[in-house]
Design brief:
Layout (H helix, E strand, L loop, with lengths): L1 E2 L6 H14 L12 E16 L4 E10 L5 E7 L11 E9 L2 E5 L3 E3 L14 E11 L9 H10 L6 H8 L4 E12 L11 H15 L9 E5 L10 E4 L5 E5 L5 H11 L5 E3 L2 E4 L16 H7 L7 E3 L4 E5 L14 E5 L6 E7 L15 E7 L8 E7 L4 E4 L4 E8 L4 E6 L14 E5 L2 E5 L3 E9 L9 E8 L5 E4 L3 E4 L4 E9 L8 E9 L8 E10 L24
Parallel strand pairs: 1-21, 4-6, 8-9, 8-10, 10-12, 13-20, 15-17, 25-32
Antiparallel strand pairs: 2-3, 2-5, 2-11, 3-4, 5-6, 5-7, 11-12, 13-14, 16-23, 17-18, 18-19, 19-20, 21-22, 22-23, 24-26, 26-30, 27-29, 27-31, 28-30, 31-32
Length: 562
């Protein structure tokens, strides 16, 4: 039997259209007329707002102004850049109105070298977690402290969020911590929801500190609030960051805790087509019982050894061990990863069985091969479930002329036939790199050495090899310049840094001078780029002997007179 997963039933298309509407978030056509120009520098924060029952979500972007400590929600005109990450130090230029900052899609730029929170390495080790319970003046959380503690850490049967993450990560990551509260907040359930969740978090943080908790010792902070509020969300979660934050409004649904924690450690949604949820083989595709994540999210999180991920580039028959198997207990690969020639994505082929927490997964995924696509990095894209196949069934990619067939399955593995036809070699699409110098302007007296940071981002697509970017500086005649590195080797999508030290001539006149860094690659003309900065020479301080006068120059008086 062959299934070609290219056309969807009308009902699925209808749901997909709804998902597009709900996913629009805060994209706007133009700022209001009363908005005023603003430039704000601070750390970026990405926040998912999830309403599973009504199949809607928003991905919101915030910047916390370093000067005023005010938080602004970024309203992008068009699609926000995909490289933005929680913790990234940025400068946002746009028009502000209240707590909103309206800006173009390219209105955010990195303001300095990235902080450690920007990167999303494999999450390992004990994640110290503080769960804070807050009641409103007119509404209370329906779960007790003990129920929430069991959900997170201590259920006697082993059915809790910590056990799920221990099993998914094969013992590499776990959760431990405390549950405190409930605290009564100075809020009502009928109060406006707009940015209220940050006020709730601040109030709960203050209450916990007052009870003697050291918030700095917790990398994961979870706020449990009453479901009776004007927001309509089941849960909210920051994407990455340390500390991370989650808000839980459905305290009795274990999957809400697990889902928002997934956002906290860097995962986006597990969807089907345009529908951001819908992949019920992954906790990031729904909210309900506890079950594990799919193959592309395993790859993203780095919890499987490289030996268990087989990169495939030719037609053949392959055995795949169940994704839920402890990798130390099998020598058979647990997923196939295949680069798609028509997009910048990968196919992920995996086999799921009712093992451990995956017993809670719908039986329609058991003993079947799952086929996903994903970009294969920590991008903001969701994973996409294309379909599942059982023994004798096939999935066909009509664009590339490929097919995947599950020939047979046992308790220990599935046998899958991969037919890639005449697979063309991947095509590398080179692009001009992003180059910047920071700070963009500095001033000093003549003869002074000033330092600049060079930032280069390789914008080649994922089919390209690493590229070497040669660096050269251009400074005024008679000046000197030194580079910490003469070249940077960068993988596609990677960002590198170098330092430039510029010393002005001791005889330079007081005015502004241009400084330039040039990037080149002899084998690729598209890799030529440059960036400029300013060195302003100010008037030197001239030190002279002081003027000294004594008056009166001549006087007379009797002996002993003053």
């Amino acid at each position: 039997m062959t299934f070609t997963f290219m056309k969807r039933p009308l009902r699925a298309l209808f749901i997909a259209c709804l998902a597009i509407i709900f996913q629009a978030g805060h994209a706007v056509a133009a700022p209001p007329e009363e908005a005023t120009p603003a430039v704000i520098t601070g750390d970026l924060e990405l926040l998912y707002l999830d309403d599973f029952e009504n199949k809607r979500f928003e991905l919101q972007y915030f910047i916390k102004d370093k000067q005023s400590n005010r938080r602004y929600r970024l309203e992008f005109e068009g699609t926000p850049p995909g490289h933005l990450r929680t913790g990234m130090p940025v400068t946002a230029k746009g028009k502000a109105l209240g707590r909103q900052l309206f800006l173009a899609a390219d209105g955010v730029s990195e303001s300095s070298s990235p902080s450690p929170a920007q990167t999303l390495p494999a999450i390992t080790g004990d994640q110290k977690t503080l769960v804070m319970i807050g009641n409103f003046k007119d509404a209370a959380v329906s779960c007790s402290v003990d129920q929430i503690r069991d959900t997170m850490f201590t259920d006697a049967s082993g059915y809790h969020v910590d056990a799920l993450y221990q099993e998914m990560s094969h013992g590499q990551m776990g959760l431990s911590g405390d549950v405190t509260g409930p605290y009564t907040l100075d809020y009502r359930s009928t109060d406006s929801c707009d940015l209220a969740y940050y006020g709730w978090a601040d109030a709960l943080n203050a209450a916990a500190i007052n009870q003697g908790y050291d918030l700095a010792s917790y990398s994961r902070r979870i706020y449990v609030l009453p479901s009776n509020n004007t927001c309509g969300w089941a849960g909210l979660g920051t994407v990455g960051g340390n500390p991370s934050n989650s808000w839980i409004m459905e305290c009795d649904i274990e999957g809400v805790y697990a889902h928002e924690l997934g956002h906290n450690i860097g995962m986006h949604h597990a969807g089907t087509g345009w529908y951001a949820y819908g992949d019920y083989s992954d906790i990031m595709g729904a909210s309900g019982p506890l079950y594990k994540i799919n193959a592309p999210h395993h790859d993203q999180m780095g919890w499987l050894p490289d030996t268990q991920i087989l990169e495939v580039s030719e037609s053949n028959t392959y055995d795949i061990a169940p994704l839920g198997t402890d990798p130390s207990q099998t020598s058979i690969p647990q997923m196939l990863k295949i680069a798609k020639p028509d997009t910048s994505e990968f196919y992920y082929i995996s086999f799921r069985k009712a093992l451990g927490f995956d017993r809670n997964m719908a039986s329609t995924y058991h003993d079947r091969t799952s086929i996903h696509t994903y970009k294969g990095d920590d991008s903001s894209d969701m994973t996409d479930l294309k379909g599942t196949i059982g023994d004798g069934e096939s999935y066909t990619d009509t664009v590339n002329g490929w097919s995947f067939t599950q020939l047979a399955s046992t308790e220990n593995y599935a046998t899958v036939r991969v037919d890639l036809g005449d697979l063309p070699p991947p095509v590398c699409t080179a692009a001009t790199p992003d180059v910047s110098l920071s700070p963009t302007s500095q001033s000093a007296e003549s003869g002074t050495s000033l330092g600049y940071t060079i930032t280069i981002r390789n914008n080649d697509d994922s089919n390209c090899d690493n590229s070497s970017f040669n660096l050269a500086s251009v400074v005024p005649s008679g000046w000197s310049a030194g580079l910490s590195k003469s070249s940077l080797s960068l993988a596609p999508g990677a960002t590198g840094y170098a330092s430039l030290t510029v010393t002005s001539s001791s005889s330079a006149s007081a005015k502004s001078y241009g400084i330039q860094i040039e990037v080149s690659n002899s084998s690729e003309s598209l890799h030529a780029a440059s960036a400029n900065a300013t060195y302003t020479v100010v008037e030197s301080c001239v030190v002279n002997a002081p003027s000294l006068t004594l008056s009166q120059t001549s006087q007379s008086g009797d002996a002993g007179a003053t």
